[in-house]
Amino acid sequence: MVDIRVIKTKENIVKSFFELLEIERYQNITVEQICQYARCSRSTFYSHYDSKENVLKEIIDGYMNQFNAYAKKRFKENTDFKNLLVRLINELIIPEKKRIQKLFQIELGGFGLANRFENFCKEVFITHYSDIPSRNLISELYAACVVKVLEAIVEERLEENDLRIINEMQKKLFNSSIFKGY
Predict the structure, then answer these.
(1) Which of 95, 87, 85 is nearest to 143 (CA)?
(2) pTM of the predicted model, to two decimals?
(3) What is the pLDDT of residues 80-99, one digit of tens each?
């Protein structure tokens, strides 16, 4: 059984981490600052995390676990691939838009949320379209586009007309001859 105090302390540390991201760049945040905002001692912090990088990794892992579980569930329900990422964005990402925006801004040499989400999109694409020609290249292009659109959404740089155009482009892509029969 998990101690409720452990859960509350970790939630408080994560909340404080995000509060600091509102005023500081990730690189400038210190464990001392996190402890001050979380009103916990350094020893309490270190009893749960080895470093601020571990806090970030746990947060990103949590989001990725959610995305993977969501995709698996939707494929079991036979959700159309074309709608999977749109639904995932609307149901999981938009409600967490502010936090995801901050996480997308953190570069970690391939381990950041944007990078991991792009890899997730590639894997989902390749799994669903396992036998189309050039699936690796197409999955890379598709995933890069999804991440760019997602960045624009969380940064609120898209207007309603932009989303309509993007949806039309996606429909045309999936209605092309390469995807017939999928």
Answers:
(1) 85
(2) 0.86
(3) 777 787 788 888 888 999 99
Distance, in Å, from the CA atom of 156 to the CA atom of 112, rounded to the nearest integer, reads 20
Distance in angstroms (rounded) separating the CA atoms of residues 158 and 175: 24
CB 46 within 8 A of CB 54: no
Closest to 117 (Cα-Cα) out of 88, 138, 95: 88
Euclidean distance between CA atoms 111 and 56, whole angstroms: 10
Query: What is the per-residue pLDDT across 62-71, written as a single tens digit (0 to 9) for each?
Result: 999 999 999 8
Sorted by sequence, the CB contacts under 8 Å of residue 10 that are 6+ apart come out as 48
Mutual orientation of helices 31-38 and 52-76 as an angle, nearest 10°? 70
Instruction: Determine the Cα–Cα distance for residues 54 and 48; give it in Å rounded to an integer.
Output: 9
